[in-house]
């Protein structure tokens, strides 16, 4: 009993391994004779038995690594989980190519639930290993970034061209590009006004505690309103304004479309921005402010040279939340005609086309992850520069 109690177990990895084994029972791919017919799920063991045994052996190795303590075990876990990700992607791509060459030209090969679940679990295993390997944020960022190098190379080399998702993209490339431009427009047209309103409002609230109560009460009420309801509430007032002031219509203002979406998204962005400014400025040590005042700095100089740089990391975390939140909520804005990737998602849902839904969902996820990663890198570099 004493020996067993001294064994170190990575419980997170152990759980992920068991879930990955369970994912193997789900369909790895789905094969349909054409786009309109529901696909038939096929397990990995049925399509490529040899590769399936290799993946099973890798899962056994991961299970054994659950009991290997220290950095060496985590490094091996990162390597094995990445190899599993690459292997799953290669198997999916080569299987789709084989089925396309041997079957009907109209046939579609989609990625199954087993693939998506297994891929997500292995990415989680890799991320957990990175977290245990190093505590430095910059190194964690680099290790996370390198995971996606080989998948990107496979994508650009055409390995996945015969998957139905890539065929859907090829058929709708112009629509996809327009959706990307619209989604980015919504993002930046939301963030810029939110910054112009939220930052001064946060600074104004910081210098008077009595102001914070009413301001945060209003912003909290806005935050509790469901997004679809807020979009709907804005349609009638905006339509009325355009009716009474035709000039607004000539400027592009309308009851539906981009205008109500931007107003609603800006309102949703204010609470985290104002809260981030207030929290950032309040966490500046009082002795630092007193020292800068003793050096003869004016209130404006203290704010620009002392308070703002020290509050910046906290504020950037709030801005990261706003941007990731906006990327996701912009999908719902497509319900009122704002466009973006949400239009592809809802069009796919209406036509029961899963690949079309994924064509809208996956870029949103990638965009959110990319924004989050860039903010992580920026905050890490900012901390390094502040320490220096």
Automatic annotation (TrEMBL):
GO terms for cellular component: plasma membrane. One of its GO terms (biological process) is glycine betaine transport. Keywords: Cell inner membrane, Cell membrane, Membrane, Transmembrane, Transmembrane helix, Transport. Gene3D superfamilies: MetI-like (1.10.3720.10). SUPFAM superfamilies: MetI-like. It is a multi-pass membrane protein. The keyword Cell inner membrane applies. Residues 180-375 form the ABC transmembrane type-1 domain. InterPro entries: ABC_transp_perm/SBD, MetI-like, MetI-like_sf. The chain crosses the membrane at residues 12-31, 51-68, 75-99, 111-130, 142-160, 180-203, 215-239, 245-271, 327-350, 356-382. Pfam families: BPD_transp_1. Belongs to the binding-protein-dependent transport system permease family. This is Osmoprotectant uptake system permease.
């Amino acid at each position: 009993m004493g020996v067993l109690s001294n064994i170190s177990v990575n419980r997170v990895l152990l759980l992920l391994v068991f879930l990955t084994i369970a994912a193997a029972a789900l369909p790895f791919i789905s094969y349909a004779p054409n786009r309109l017919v529901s696909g038939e799920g096929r397990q990995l063991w049925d399509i490529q038995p040899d590769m399936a045994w290799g993946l099973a052996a890798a899962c056994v190795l991961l299970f054994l690594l659950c009991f290997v303590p220290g950095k060496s075990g985590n490094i091996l876990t990162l390597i094995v989980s990445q190899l599993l990700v690459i292997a799953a992607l290669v198997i999916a791509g080569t299987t789709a190519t084989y089925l396309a060459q041997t079957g009907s030209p109209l046939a579609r090969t989609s990625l199954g639930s087993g693939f998506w679940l297994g891929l997500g679990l292995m990415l989680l295993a890799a991320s957990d290993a990175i977290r245990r390997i190093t505590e430095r944020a910059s190194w964690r960022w680099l290790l996370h970034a390198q995971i996606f190098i080989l998948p990107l190379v496979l994508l650009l080399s055409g390995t996945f061209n015969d998957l139905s998702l890539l065929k859907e993209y090829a058929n709708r490339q112009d629509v996809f590009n327009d959706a990307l431009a619209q989604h980015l427009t919504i993002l930046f047209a939301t963030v810029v006004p939110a910054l112009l309103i939220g930052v001064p409002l946060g600074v104004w609230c910081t210098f008077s505690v009595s102001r914070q109560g009413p301001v945060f009460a209003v912003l909290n009420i806005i935050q509790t309103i469901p997004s679809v309801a807020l979009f709907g509430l804005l349609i009638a007032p905006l339509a009325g304004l355009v009716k009474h002031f035709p000039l607004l219509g000539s400027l592009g203002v309308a009851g539906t479309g981009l205008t109500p979406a931007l107003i609603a998204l800006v309102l949703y962005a204010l609470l985290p921005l104002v809260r981030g400014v207030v929290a950032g400025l309040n966490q500046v040590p009082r002795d630092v402010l007193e020292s800068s005042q003793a050096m003869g700095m004016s209130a404006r100089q203290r704010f620009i040279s002392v308070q703002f740089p020290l509050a910046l990391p906290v504020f950037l975390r709030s801005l990261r939340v706003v941007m990731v939140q906006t990327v996701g909520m912009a999908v719902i804005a497509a319900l009122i005609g704002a466009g973006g990737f949400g239009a592809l998602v809802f069009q796919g849902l209406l036509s029961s086309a899963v690949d079309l839904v994924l064509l809208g969902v996956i870029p949103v996820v990638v965009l959110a992850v990319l924004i989050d990663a860039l903010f992580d890198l920026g905050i890490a570099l900012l901390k390094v520069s502040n320490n220096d």
